[in-house]
Amino acid sequence: MPKEWRSRAAGLEMRLSLQFVRVVALGGWIGAITYFAAGVTEGAFAVLPSPDDAGLLVGFTLGRLHLMGLVSAAIFIAASLALAKSLTAVFKPAVAGVIVMGLLTIASQYHVLPRMARLRSQMGSVHQTPPSDPRRGEFDRLHKTSVDVEGAVLLVGLIALFLALREDRSPAEG
Question: Whole-model pTM?
Answer without folding.
Answer: 0.89
